[in-house]
Structure formats: structure tokens, C-alpha cells
UniProtKB/TrEMBL annotation:
<keyword id="KW-0472">Membrane</keyword>
<dbReference type="GO" id="GO:0016939">
    <property type="term" value="C:kinesin II complex"/>
</dbReference>
<dbReference type="GO" id="GO:0030951">
    <property type="term" value="P:establishment or maintenance of microtubule cytoskeleton polarity"/>
</dbReference>
<feature type="compositionally biased region" description="Basic residues">
    <location>
        <begin position="207"/>
        <end position="223"/>
    </location>
</feature>
<dbReference type="GO" id="GO:0008089">
    <property type="term" value="P:anterograde axonal transport"/>
</dbReference>
<feature type="compositionally biased region" description="Polar residues">
    <location>
        <begin position="45"/>
        <end position="55"/>
    </location>
</feature>
<feature type="compositionally biased region" description="Low complexity">
    <location>
        <begin position="224"/>
        <end position="236"/>
    </location>
</feature>
<protein>
    <recommendedName>
        <fullName>Kinesin-associated protein 3</fullName>
    </recommendedName>
</protein>
<dbReference type="GO" id="GO:0007605">
    <property type="term" value="P:sensory perception of sound"/>
</dbReference>
<dbReference type="GO" id="GO:0005930">
    <property type="term" value="C:axoneme"/>
</dbReference>
<keyword id="KW-1133">Transmembrane helix</keyword>
<feature type="region of interest" description="Disordered">
    <location>
        <begin position="43"/>
        <end position="73"/>
    </location>
</feature>
<feature type="region of interest" description="Disordered">
    <location>
        <begin position="407"/>
        <end position="436"/>
    </location>
</feature>
<dbReference type="GO" id="GO:0090263">
    <property type="term" value="P:positive regulation of canonical Wnt signaling pathway"/>
</dbReference>
<dbReference type="InterPro" id="IPR016024">
    <property type="entry name" value="ARM-type_fold"/>
</dbReference>
<feature type="compositionally biased region" description="Low complexity">
    <location>
        <begin position="966"/>
        <end position="985"/>
    </location>
</feature>
<dbReference type="InterPro" id="IPR011989">
    <property type="entry name" value="ARM-like"/>
</dbReference>
Amino acid sequence: MQFVLLLIFQIISGLVLLPIVIHYVYYIINAIAGDLCEQKRAQREQQLQRSPTPRHQNRHPAQSPHPPPTEEEPVVFINNLTNSSRSPPAATTMQTNDDAKFIKKRWKGGSIEPHPTDKALIVNYQLEATVFGEPNNPMIEEKKHCQKIIRLRSLNAKTDPAALAREVVEKCDLIHKSQLNDVEQIIFYLKNRKDNASNDIPDNNTHSRRSAALHTSHTRSSARSHSSVAAMTSSTGSGGGSTGTSNGVSNALSTATPTADVSINNIDEYVELLYEELGERIRGSAMILQMARNPDNLEELEKNEACLSALSRVLREDWRKSLDLSTNIIYIFFCFSTYTKFHPLIVQYKIGSLCMDVIDYELRRYETMRNELDVRKQPNGSSTPHSAKASKEKLNRSTDDFLDIMNEEKPKEMEPPRRRIPELKQRPKSGNWSSFHGSMSSSLIKSQILNSSYHESLCAGGSPAGDPPAVPAELKAQSNESLDRNDPKVKKEEIDRLNKQLKIFAKKQEQLLRVAFYLLLNMAENVKLEEKMRRKHIVKMLVKALDRQNIDLLMLVSTFLKKLSIVGDNKDEMGALNIVAKLPRLFQSTHTDLVQVTLKLVFNLSFDGGLRRKMIAAGYLPMLVMFINDEKHHGIAVKILYHMSLDDKVKGMFTQTECVQMATDAIILNLNVKVDLDLIALCINLSLNRRNAQIMVEGQRLHSLMDRAFKYQDALLMKLLRNLSQHESLQQQFIDYVGDLARILTICDDEAFIVECLGILGNLALTDLDYSQILQNFQLIPWIRQILVPCSRMDDLVLDTIVYLGTCACDELCALLFCRAKVVISLIELLKAKQEDDEIVLQIIFVFQQILRHESTREYMIKETESPAYLIDLMHDKNEEIRKVCDYCLDIIAISDSEWAKRIKLEKFRNHNSQWLCMVESQQDQDNEQDYADQEDECDNDLDTYLRSEYLDNCDLYNDNADNDSNSNSNCNSNHSNNNPASPAMSTYSRPLSTYRRSQDLDDLYNMTSSSKSQGSSDNNFIFKSNKSLDADGLHEELLMA
């Protein structure tokens, strides 16, 4: 047994040692092989050192405006260096020793240029090679500028530049993805470029011509100036509201015109340029701007306090001297403003305040130039003959200032060809030489002054670049003399020329305004900064800028105004500046984004009633109606029209447009379950106008609206139909739908929908309808009693149910049905629970009035219910409408019942003389309190129990049994009215003013007096007026005459 265990142990030990032995052998073999490889590598390195390499012509292409990051290739051993196909051999012979082991290659992307003759791209890049002896021991470094030509053989007139650009970027490792827009722009340029190369040139000359053209293109591109901001901002046709670093024409210019090599490492050199002459300051600011447009450089620039201080100082001191300089520096800070984290930096250097000063100055300068140009256009050179001399002097001064401004700020588009105007070599046909020269001073000589080269003024070394060239006083005098001659032809030419120059100047000025406004818009994210802008009249500046023509500027200004318009003070200031008169011009623009932003601004302003009236007067309504059928502007246009439909006077103006038909058809043709909320709200408002309602139901539209309302049980659509049913001329068309409306009441679960259905039935007070049959056939009486249970349903449903009962109670059979079914009892219980709701109280007593008007139900109301007592109580209510209906009902009760007539008469007398009673109250002697108390007990025994106890305590004074002792009873009643809550002097009824204004019909009052069974002796004691609205005071006087 022991032998077996020993054998097993030896076997296991052998298996464990076997891998160790194998690994050790492998290590020895690998070490030997490594020594052999190192020897061979050393030999090849020595051979490489002895063999010279040809030099390569060094090219220095311009960097791209957005240089891609440097990419690095893996480490390559020296023996593989000669196999590299990425770049030509090194420029110089590498001198190294035997310790050189490997080489590291890196390439840095550069600019991309279009080929001058072929349909190809020229990619510039820089190759860096470093030879290492050890991993951290570089021995030799070499850099080399290279080019690669990518020929676009598939490019033709039908090629998609965007798709081809993506394909080129994917396949070429030298082009970074950030340069995709540049490649696309170059391909677009190559696609549309006319091929100037001649096919007749022999092949041996083609290569030389292309090489020369390429060299010339490179020379021009490296020498271009950075003074113009046209390559940094998008032009007027680039579309809506892009940021300062946006694409569009900006990218096209920056791609087709590569700028000089700009690096963050040379920032100190660019800052030094800010301390030079104006031309150098513009160039330095343009280079810093190019770096700021790359977001990766912003944090580095933020740390450079010297750069930011120099920029803010130059802007503060020299912003009046050059538009280019101001635009470049403001653009730099705008790049910072696009990120909230850099806003404190802008506040620190007070750039926002400077921007507002620049904007205010430029707007005033442009306005002054426009006014001066208008003065020139006048026939006699002045507005009035009285001020002719003053206007002439002002015109002369403005001409000099205008010439100085145009010479100082003239953009590149105004540069004439680099040639002199030849002197006249021939005498004119008529006149003398001096007169001819005088006439030419206003055209040719002044044209030469206006069109002097902006490039030359920047590059002049003898004087500051911002200073305009000196204009001789003699030329100005000659110019003014020629204008004074009022030569129509010369004057017309001069005005046309100045007008053209002003337009070009305004176009350049708008670039500055756009960048400055954009910076302020970004800073307005802070509410405190926005308030500071408001105090410095930013709204006034923005409203002035609405007169410009630049689409991008108008979009930016409209967006800024839209943001500011949500503040009441800003909105009021916009109204005072008559912004409403300036916006219709923007509606007519073909730029949809501008129209959309303008409509949003108008929507914010339309919340103000005064501004809405100005909009109507300015003719906004027809323009807004045109946008209903526009899918993009439909939503916002309907919202504005809804606001305008809030005014009753404006509702009738909609009939002069097609808005009513279009809106109604849009609801009917809508395929969705729910109709657009704004659209249905607009129609609901318009339906309150009778003429609009008639238009809505024309052409079987009522049938379509009813079908859709019942199909989807749309409460808002039923509300629209309810408004239509309010018009008496349209009520006959609803008769066919009465059955459907009554049937839906008991089967629908949506209370909002039921409310609108009840509203329609309540509006249909038609003699042709048999209301009792409707109530019985659809079993509505039990449903109505359930609704009238207090606190069981929503108040709106209860209120419309009571309104419907009032409509039905006009029919005598329905009134009898209500009495038999104890609906009146339910109404009295509801009246007790809802005494603070004026609307419900008013509608309940209106139902009482309708029932009391019928002789068959009048006795039931008086003898079987407590309604008379509650009506007497409500006679003192503060709501005028409730008092009117109560007086009418009490008059009917007094005619029908003599006993109630006495009590009603006494209560009205007490109410009418309440002030006198209060005065008597204040004069009573406190010593007789016990006697008054005894008299109060006697008064309590003389009244019936029909009235409330609080009310009965105050009626003893007026009982007929106490007529002989009226003075004593008066003292008794006045003594206790002070402590009685039912006293009119102490009335605490505080219900709000009712919104119900339904007039009462009292025409049949005299008929009731002749047919009442309970008149008795009261017929000779009461005189009533028969009129539409009962006068309570007059009725009191008539009752007291008895």
C-alpha cells in the first residue's frame, strides 16, 4: 500500500515540474533569438545611415479655420521606415548612432483647398517623425508639410455634395470629421465652377500650367487679410437665426478663402497687435476671433487676462473708429456668451454696457444719415423756404461728415479697381475748362473720394489706418457749389450714388448690430441683467431695428422682443413706441421662420386689450385669417384670433373675412376624436354674434356639428351648439334634435356633456314643443329629482337643470306635473342649502314665478308650500335681480290671497321706512326696557306661524288689530329691531352680484287680478303697474296708498 502511494506522489510531482521545465527552455530560446534580431537591426540601421535620401520641396499650406486634432501613428521600427507610403522620404539625412531603435510618426491635419483646374480636393497636412533610442529618449525630430490630391471622378451636375462629402471624409484619414462642412462647401463650389481649362492645350503643358495655378492660389490665400468679418458671420441669405459660429455663407467663405496659420500658442503675438495702429488692431482681433470660434479654446482664452483686458480696452476706446474692429471684439465676447459659465467674465469687463452704447450710437448714426439723404431728395434742398439757408449749411456739414464716415467704414464691396482715373486730355465742347471741372467735382472727383480703397486706408503706414484720407477743402467747396446749382441730372446721380453707398454701409453695420444684440440676448438669461437692459432702453433700440431689411437681424430682434414682451413694463413700452405699426411688414416676408417669430411676438402682445384694438385698426385681422390654412402658422394664428374674438365689437368684424367658414369647416372635417382646443374656443366666442352664428349653420353645417357632437360626446362642441341655440332666429332648426338631447341626459356619464345638452334644452323656449310629453316619454322627472338633491351633483349641472325646469314651467301641464311629482318641494330644500349661490337662488325663484303664473298651480304654491315665507325673506336681498323676481312673485301672491297680502304690505312698509325706524330706535329711553318687553310679548301672539320666527318678531307694529295704538306699536317694533337679524338695517346678506340678467314678463298681471279666486276685498286695495320690469319703489308707494 505504501508503494502505491509513493508511486502516485512521484507521478504528480513529475507532472507539476514538467511545465516549469518547458517554460525555462522557452525563455532561453527566446533570449538567444532576441540577441540575433538586435544584431540584424543594428546592421540595417547602419546601412540606412549611410544611404542619403532625396530632399522634398517644403510646402506651407494655410491652416483650416477649424484644425482637426493631431493624430498619432503607432510606433514603427526603423527597418519599416522605408516602407511607409503615407509621406515622401525625410527632408534631411537622419544622423543617429547605433543606439537608435525605433521611429514614431505623427501627422497633423490642415486646410482643404479646391484644385485650381481639376475637380479635386487638395488636402494639406504636416508629418512629424521622431527617432527614439529609448522610449523616453528622442534623438532626432523632423517635420514636413505635405499635400494629397483627392480626385472626384464621379462629380457631375447631379451629384449630391453632402453625400459625396461624407464619403470623402469616411475614406480619407487625413480629413477630420469636423471638416465635413468645409468639404461639402468645396465640393459644391467645384460642382458649380466653370471649367476654365482649355482642352486644346497639349499634355506636356497641362502639368506646368496646373502647377503654376496651384502655386498662385497658394500665394494668394496665404496673403489674405483678416480685417473683414464677412468670412466670420452668415450673410443675409443664410437663413434664420444661426449663432455666430454657424454654418452657411460663413463656412463657404472660410473654406474657399483659407486664412493664415492661427494658433493658440501665438496668442501673445496677437495681443501685441492690439497695441499697434488701427489696421493691425483689426488684424489682431480677427485672429483672436478665429481662435474664439473654436469652443475648445475658450477656457484657455478665459485664463489669459492680458488678452481680455486688451480687447475690452480697445473696444472701449476705439469702437467709434471702425465697424470691423467693434464687430470682431464683440464677436469674441459673443462666443463666450453662448456658455452660461462665462457670463461672469462678460459682466466683469462690462461688455454688455458697451454693446448697448455701440448699438445706440450706430442706430442714431444711421437715422441721421437717412435724414440727411432725405433732405437731399427734397426739391429745393430744404423742408421750408424760411429755413433755406440753415438747411443748406446743415447739408454742407452733413456732406462732409457723410464722406468721412464712408471713407472710414467703406467695406470691401465698395473697392474700385486698382487704377487711376485718367485726366481729361481734351477740352470740352462748350464752356471753359474751369466750369467743366466744377461740374465734374460732384460726380467724378467726389466718387473718387467716396470710393477710395478701404484696403489702402488700413495698410497706410504714414497715418493711422482708421483716419480717413484728407479731403481738400477746395474739392469740398467745389462739390457744395455744384450741388447748389441744382442740376437735376447731377443731383439725381449724386443721390442714387449716396443711396447705394448707404445701403452697403447699412448692410455692414447690421452685422455689428446682430452680433451685439445676440450677445445681449444670451446675457438676458439673467433676470437682473435683463432689468438693467430695460432701464437702458433696450426695448427702444430693438423697436428701431425693426425698420432694417436684414432677415437674420429681424429674426434676432423679433426673438429678443418676444422674450421681453412677457414683462408688463416692456409690453407697455412697446405699445408706446407703436410697435404694432411696424410688424405688418414682417408678415409679408417670404421667410417662414421670420413670420413664425413675429406671430409669437404678436401673440404675447395680444394679451393686452389696448394693443389688440391697435392691431385691429392696423388691419391685422385679414392677415391673420390668411394663416389659418398654413400648416406651419395655423396654431399660433388661431391663438391670436381667439384673443381678438374676446372683444364683442371685434366679433362682428369676422363676418367680413372667411374666418367663420374656415374655422367651422376645419372642425367638421377634423378626423381626430378631439378638436383643436384653440380652434373650438375661437368658434365658441364667434358664435355669440348673431351673424356669425347664421354663417356657422349654413349649408347643413348644423347637422354635421350635431352628428359629430353626439358621436364623440364632445362637451366643447356641444357648448358651441348651445351658443348657437341662444339666437331666436336659429332655435327652430334645433327642434329636430330635442328628442336626441333629452334621451342623452339619462344615458350619458359625462356631466360636462350633459350640462351643455341641458343648456340647449333650456334655451329652446318654443310654443310648438310639448314639454310634458318630453318629460314623460324620456322619464326625466325621477332623474331631475335626483339631480336636485343637495350636494349630490356638480353645481353647474344643478343650475342648468333648474334653468330647464323654468323653461318647462311655462307650460301649465308641466307646472302641474312638477307640483304632483313634488319637484317644488325639492327646489325649496335646495334653496335652503344654496342660499349663498345667487345664480341658483335666482333660477329657483324664477321657477316659482312661472308656476305662480298658472291659476291651477297658484293655490298649491301658496297653501301647500313654504315658498311665500322664503320669498318675503329674499325680498331684502342685495341682488337687484333677485329682488325684482321676488317682488313679482309676492305681488301675484297678494292678488290671490288677502291674508298674505296684509303681511306682504306690512313688510314692504317696514322695509321702505327702515331708516326712520333706526332713527327712532336711537332716541328710545333705556328706562322703559321692561315695558317694551311686555309689548313685545303681546305682539308675538298676534301673528300666524307662516313666517319665520325672526321675521314675525318684527311685524306686530303693522298688524291691523293694532291700528288704534300705532304709536305704541311703533315704539315697540323700533325697540327690538336693533337686535333682530332680519331687520333691513341689520341685514347681513352678502351674496355677490348675480350674472343673470333675464328680464321678467309682467304683461299678464291684470289678467291675474280679474281671474283670481282669492281676491276678495283686496281688489280695491291694490293698484299695480303692468310693465316689463317692476319698479319696487313705485309699487311700495302704490301699496301704501290703500
